[in-house]
Design brief:
Blueprint lengths: L4 E10 L2 E11 L4 E5 L6 H8 L7 E6 L2 E2 L11 E4 L11 H11 L7 H7 L15 H12 L6 E5 L7 H16 L3 E6 L2 H7 L2 E6 L2 E6 L1 H8 L3 E8 L2 E8 L5 H9 L3 E8 L3 H9 L4
Helix pairs in contact: 7-9
The chain binds adenosine-5'-triphosphate (ATP).
The site of adenosine-5'-triphosphate has 12 residues, from strand 2 and helix 1.
């Protein structure tokens, strides 16, 4: 199957400040790739190159099989972009904003009410965007990114700052899009969010990718699982952590519980955050 997004060793610097330093990855149709990294890691710069807002100094980008270099590619018609910079028209209503974008894409009969319904803004459709909260604007940005029924979707921090119900609604939209074949590239610095939403995650730090894999594989390969055994000991409670998946796990567990009153046993899994720190030497 042809990759929806194919990136080969792209580089970018702002003057002498290197921002992206030889990044390569692919996203398949219907796949959600979560781009994870701390502030200044190079996530936005990468997305800007993929969406044609910046031109890589070196390297190749192909989206839906077409080379992307700057704004001029026809493939932009098949992309949806929801970016940090909230360039919505504040003096227009939600409907007017979406109509304006539909016109830009040459879409004759956009299902604007359907999109507003999906992001739970139908009741506010005639209100000016200047009266919208941050979360409502964010949801409108997502609706706007979907106006052309995109095959590739770029979302920057799609659930950042949203209340749990709105965040869940956005996650559901992303999952539905990916189930219908849209490739999704999203950025976040929230590991839990990435774990929930992404089929694979890419760890980026200082302009370099350190891993691209499923959260499960990363945990299996790089995370240490352990069992936390709580026992009653000398009138108090003692906690003993036993590493799992090692040759002497059985013996260590036996020693932890032998002759003691066991209160609880919990297994603990390394979080993506632990693995990110282990691989990059840096937290989020
Ligand atoms: P964040 O999570 O904070 O949005 P990011 O991972 O998106 O961070 P980028 O915005 O891509 O990171 O920044 C990568 C590097 O490029 C940083 O060192 C940043 O300071 C630098 N940089 C980004 N934009 C500019 C700019 N317009 N001019 C100069 N340097 C920039």
């Amino acid at each position: 199957m042809q990759a929806a997004i194919k990136v080969d060793s792209i580089h970018f610097a702002y003057g002498s400040q290197k921002a992206v330093n030889g990044i390569s990855f692919e996203v398949a149709p219907g796949e959600v790739l979560g781009f994870l990294g701390p502030n200044g890691a190079g996530k936005s710069t990468t997305i800007k190159m993929l969406t044609g807002q910046l031109i890589p100094a070196q390297g190749q980008i192909h989206i839906l099989g077409q080379a992307v270099r700057g704004h001029s590619s026809a493939v932009h018609q098949r992309m949806g972009v929801s970016f940090e910079e909230k360039n919505l028209y504040l003096q227009m209503s939600a409907v007017e904003n979406l109509k304006f974008y539909a016109n830009l894409f040459g879409i004759k009969k956009p299902d604007i009410d359907g999109l507003l319904e999906q992001v739970d803004l139908l009741k506010r459709k005639k209100d000016r965007v200047s009266s919208f909260s941050k979360g409502m604007r964010q949801r409108l940005m997502i609706a706007r990114a979907l106006i052309n029924d995109p095959e590739v979707l770029f979302l920057d921090e799609p659930t950042d700052g949203l209340d749990p119900v709105s965040a869940q609604a956005i996650r559901n939209i992303i999952r539905a899009r990916s189930a219908s074949g849209t490739a999704v590239l999203l950025t976040t610095h929230d590991m839990t969010e990435a774990d929930k939403l992404s089929d694979r995650v890419a760890f980026i730090n200082e302009g370099v990718l350190h891993a691209v894999d499923t959260p499960e594989n990363l945990k299996l390969k790089h995370g240490q699982r352990s069992a936390l055994v709580r026992v009653r000991q000398n009138g108090g409670i003692e906690e003993i952590r036993v590493a799992l998946d090692s040759g002497d796990t059985g013996e260590a567990l036996k020693q932890a519980v032998q002759g003691r009153e066991v209160l609880t046993v919990h297994t603990e899994e390394a979080s993506l955050e632990d693995i990110f720190i282990k691989m990059t030497g840096r937290g989020l």
